[in-house]
Amino acid sequence: MTWHVGELMNQMQFCCSVTSAKNVKKYHFLSINFENKNMSNSQENFFSLSASMTKASHEKKALELEDVNAEKNLRRVIKKVMKSNDGKSLNGADVIQAYGMAYDYANRGFYRHEAEILIQKLVPNLAEIQLTALLEKAYTSSRDNLYPVLNAPSLARYVLEQAQGNIRVRSSDNGFLFWTGTHWSVNEGQQKVEHAVKEILNTLLEDMKEPHKSDYLTWLNDPENNKKLIEAVNREAERIPNSIFEEISRLLHFENGGYSFFEKKLVMPEREQYLTDDFRLNGEYDENAKCSGWKVFLNRVTRGNKTLLDYLHMLCGYILCAGVNYRSFVLVFWNQGGNGGTLMLKALQHVMGGYAGILPSSFLYDSDKPADDLSYLSRKHLLTLSNTEFNNNIDSKRLNDLTRDFPIEGWNANKKEWECFKLKGTLIMETKSDPRGINVGTERNNTISVIPFFGGNISEDAFEDMIASERNGILAWMMKGYHKLDRNNDYFGRPDGVFDL
User: Fold this and answer.
1) What pLDDT, in 10s, does the model give residues 95-129?
2) What are phi and psi of 329, to 5 degrees?
3) Closest among 34, 38, 31, 32 to 12, alpha carbons compared
4) At what angle do helices 460-487 and 340-352 cross, to 10 degrees?
5) Taking the CA of residue 338 as centre, how many other CA atoms within 13 Å lie in the half-sphere pointing to its CB?
6) Which residues contact 390 (CB under 8 A, 6 or more apart)?
7) Distance of alpha carbon 402 from the chain centroid
């Protein structure tokens, strides 16, 4: 590999801060020896050169830190480093030197991962050592009684330290997460983070003296700098893997808190439980909320059949609370002489909010063709297919895959690659056509239950107004259905008129 002098200078500026004309000349003199020469181990040579130029200043910085009574802190750092590396034998002098280097890099605006790479190259004994604890201490200490360096990385770290963990990033889409005190905001995460950054920096400026204040204001008033700052905050923030969100939560997320299945009551969510506003029910938890209009509707569409009413009550409780469709249900809401099934499904979609998802109409037909990437539906409790046409044969293979937690392959258009995903929720199909006699295959591990709905045509406008006003009561009714199912030892029964395909 051949490095041109200009490329080498860029690398050296990455590692070393050039603050005077004398230093510039010194570095240029050193770099010309490499011009037009082949370097078989160019990276090693560069780091070796960098070490010879910076070792003295790093050692000096380490000694200065010791002189300001940092011995206790360094001992703590050494203990943390040893603990995080399973007690590997470490040289205290190496750790002290690395600490001084990290402190220096922090003040010069390096990202932590950049500092870690440089330290592990310059201090070979630490090449295989986990330096998280050391970097955390050094980057925190570097800010004591100092203004952050006027560049995007340094300001981003300052903002994140002041935010105290309330700003994070979701790894799956690099989207911001902002902790509001009750939940993580995803839908407005970007806006809330931008507002928080302004608030934190305005507080910093209030106590700042001239000429620093004018310099900061000039920098921050530049829209391009602000864009770079938000990008740096996104890069520096803690990244939360998608697996954290895919775990089955012990809390059911209502607008006013989380319902604890263990305590059987509403509790305030904690930050590390990762309840987000894009996965939340559309209503508050209020066990005393009423839903008289909803009960009138149910009585009409079931013709007052108490057994069917109880069955629907427990079924809706199951859909609300079951994060995984462990009963392998597929439900068909069959409109017989009206739109009762359509409105029933619309009501469930409304109150379930972020817990409900809509499948594309082509999903259950022709599994030989690849599905779209539907991984965004993997956490949904309720999956719906409206206006299902049963004049086409349902694809039994895909139906089977859907209800046995089997990976389904799909094409992710954004990433331009194939991915496997699992859909865990309960599927409800709504139809006006007669589903009887349709071939859905025999090699299935699921139960496809058809539920008839009656009652004639109901005004959709009046129904939607009722649902909006009684949403808290409907959610309370569904929760009571879940408790009824629990008392019934998970037995739904089989009302007259309900049949399996």
Assistant:
1) 888 888 888 887 776 777 888 888 988 888 888 88
2) -80, 145
3) 31
4) 70
5) 18
6) 431, 433, 434, 435, 438
7) 24
Q: Give the largest Cα separation in the chain, rounded.
A: 93
DSSP 337-361: SBSHHHHHHHHHHHHHGGGEEE--T
CA distance 420 to 408: 5
| Helices and strands (DSSP H and E) totals, the chain | 17, 16
How far is Cα 111 from Cα 351, in angstroms, rounded to an integer? 44
Give CA–CA dist 167/216, Å, rounded. Answer: 23
Which pair of tokens denotes residue 389? 């046409």
DSSP string for 24-67: HHHHHHHHGGGTT-B-TTHHHHHHHHHHHHHHHHHHHHHHHHHH
Return d(Cα 117, Cα 124) in angstroms, integer. 11
In order, the DSSP letters of 461-489 are HHHHHHHHHHHHHHHHHHHHHHHHHHHTT
Q: Judge whether residue 455 has pLDDT over 90.
A: no
| Domains annotated on the chain, with CATH | 5-141 (no CATH), 152-243 (no CATH), 248-273 (no CATH), 292-500 (3.40.50)
Chain centre distance of CA 82: 31
Residue 265 is inside which H or E element, if any? Answer: strand 265-267
Q: In whole angstroms, what is the distance from residue 122 CA to residue 101 CA?
A: 10
Residue among 341, 347, 338 nearest 455 (CA)? 338
Backbone angles phi, psi at 491, to 5 degrees: -105, 120
Assess contact for 316 and 348: CB atoms under 8 A: yes
Q: Could you give the CA distance from residue 331 to residue 382 in angstroms, rounded to a whole number?
A: 11
Q: Give the torsion through C-alpha atoms of 180, 183, 187, 193, to 10 deg.
A: 30
Omega before residue 495 within 30° of 0, cis: no
- Contact between 78 and 95 under an 8 Å Cβ cutoff? The reply is yes
Residues whose CB falls within 8 Å of the CB of residue 457, separated by 6 or more in sequence, listed in order = 338, 339
pTM for this one?
0.69
Q: Residue 500: helix, strand or coil by DSSP? A: strand
| Residue 372 banded pLDDT, cuts 50, 70, 90 | low
Other Cβ atoms less than 10 A from the Cβ of 446: the count is: 21
- Residues 153-190 pLDDT 10s: 989 999 998 999 999 999 888 999 999 999 999 999 99
Alpha helices (H) along 148-211: 152-163, 189-206
Write the DSSP symbol of residue 68.
T
